[in-house]
TrEMBL record:
The lineage of its organism: Bacteria, Bacillati, Actinomycetota, Actinomycetes, Catenulisporales. GO terms for biological process: iron ion transmembrane transport. It is a multi-pass membrane protein. It comes from the Bacteria. GO terms for molecular function: cadmium ion transmembrane transporter activity; manganese ion transmembrane transporter activity. This is Divalent metal cation transporter. Keywords: Membrane, Transmembrane, Transmembrane helix, Transport. Residues 1-20 are annotated as: Disordered. PANTHER family: NATURAL RESISTANCE-ASSOCIATED MACROPHAGE PROTEIN 2, SOLUTE CARRIER PROTEIN FAMILY 11 MEMBER. The chain crosses the membrane at residues 76-94, 121-145, 151-171, 183-200, 220-240, 261-284, 304-337, 358-377, 389-409, 421-442. It is found in: Membrane. GO terms for cellular component: plasma membrane. InterPro entries: NRAMP_fam (IPR001046).
Length: 445
């Protein structure tokens, strides 16, 4: 992926991007300052633009999501495949809004909230983001530690090594380089597609599963809520909006950026389906197998894949998923807080006096996550708590996103008519499932 598409340096964005007709002129001025851009009618190609959407979607299939998919396959076989397909447009609709907000206004999510609603609401959004990011990092570090234990490497070695790697990654001085590394790590998740094919699922059972939805079973509804409520993480919104800015995408790149997001949404859900299928296909050989850790999931695959293949495939996929999610969530946290507090924030500049707040935040997030995992917290319970936290935070995050789309964008770039109502309805579905899941998961009902 190219480090730069148009212009020379990311700036603060158009100051007037929040006000009616003036926002149009501000947006045009913003993009003129970033360079001449491609010839009229010709936008940059996919290899130049693609990246932010693919990275954020690969991060969406993180360690916690993979365990949820495994439990879905173990408990209900192929009956959870159709919901995974239905989640594709929900993912796309939400993340496409972040693309438009970032490219058209030239401002990150936190900066837009501060400009539109004031510092108090911006601090609320920053607090929401920080809680979600720390929870995500704990889950990812726990997943990485689980992979290490599968191969005999203790947590006390795995977690510090990964922390150093992630800290060093941000010091490369190039957003493009970080993006390429993130994609390479995330593509390790394709190992799950190989695992699904190697498990030899029965075609007839797959077709029957697509038509099965036992909504009368409370356990099924809870797992459905878990899958739906976890499809959008708060840090995904902040990351993709910040990434299209740090990548310096112009309005001419918007169509390609949407394609990037759509492709990523399809790929991440296919990976979830692959995990579900691989586990469901082996269920007859290991009925009732516990699937609460990386090692247990790998063991459940041994009847068809063999011990070595099952361990390597799931270990590789889980490691890639956890690493790319750790990169995305921590960058989202650092970008979001820097936007709220007005710090300079870009991976295209090495640490210095002006970027100190951004890089220190990035480092502090990783160190906090590593210390908590090394303190031997209850990792299984932690994964449950993180799901609940994300579910409770979604109304705040999606609420800000939808209002910004309706108010911060120039009229010509907003959703209108049926498209607008569909987007709001899909977001409300995600919020409703998340809130439904939270009390049940906590044992309140």
């Amino acid at each position: 992926m190219a480090d730069e598409v148009v212009g020379t340096a990311a700036g603060p964005g158009p100051a007037g991007a929040q006000r009616g007709v003036g926002a149009v002129a501000a947006a045009r001025s913003w993009h003129r300052r970033r360079g001449p851009g491609p010839k009229p009618g010709r936008g940059p190609g996919p290899l130049v633009v693609w990246g932010p959407g693919l990275v954020v979607m690969l991060a969406d299939t993180d360690a916690g999501s993979l365990i949820t998919a495994s439990q879905s396959g173990a408990r209900f076989g192929y009956a959870m495949i159709l919901p995974q397909l239905i989640l594709i447009p929900i993912l796309y609709v939400v993340q496409e809004i972040t693309v438009r907000l970032g490219i058209v206004t030239g401002q990150g999510h936190g900066a837009l909230i501060r400009a539109r609603f004031g510092r108090g609401w911006a601090l609320l959004s920053a607090g929401t983001l920080l809680v979600s990011v720390i929870g995500a990092l704990l889950t990812e570090f726990a997943g990485i530690a689980g992979v290490g234990q599968m191969f005999g490497v203790p947590t006390a070695v795995t977690v510090p090594l990964v922390t150093v790697f992630l800290l060093a990654l941000a010091l490369t001085g190039s957003y493009g380089r970080v993006e390429r590394i993130g994609i390479a790590l995330g593509l390790a998740e394709l190992a799950f597609l190989a695992a699904a094919l190697a498990s030899h699922p029965d075609p007839g059972s797959l077709v029957r599963g697509l038509g099965s939805a036992p909504l009368g079973d409370r356990s099924y509804v809870l797992l459905l809520a878990a899958n739906t409520g976890a499809v959008i993480m708060p840090w995904m919104v902040f990351y993709q909006q910040g990434a299209v800015i740090d990548k310096r995408l112009s309005i001419t790149a918007l169509r390609r950026a949407r394609q990037d997001t759509a492709f990523g949404a399809v790929l991440t859900q296919l990976i979830m389906i692959a995990v579900l299928v691989a586990v469901a296909a082996t269920l007859t050989a290991r009925p009732g197998a516990a699937l609460n850790s990386v090692g247990q999931i790998a063991a459940a695959l041994t009847p068809y894949l063999g011990h070595a293949a099952g361990t390597v495939l799931f270990g590789l996929g889980m490691l890639g998923a956890a690493l790319v999610a750790a990169i995305v969530s921590s960058l989202a946290g650092a970008w979001g807080l820097a936007e709220v507090f007005g710090w300079q924030h870009t991976l295209n500049s090495r640490p210095g006096r002006r970027t100190a707040g951004f890089y220190l935040t990035y480092a502090a997030i990783h160190i906090t996550g590593a210390v908590l995992v090394l303190a031997s917290v209850d990792l299984v319970r932690l994964a449950v708590d993180v799901e609940v936290i994300n579910a409770l935070l979604l109304p705040v995050v999606l609420g800000f996103l939808l209002v910004l789309e309706a108010k911060a964008l120039p009229a010509g770039w907003r959703m209108h008519g049926p498209r607008k109502y569909l987007a709001w309805a899909l977001c409300l579905v995600v919020i409703a499932f998340g809130l439904y899941m939270a009390p049940a998961t906590l044992g309140w009902v």
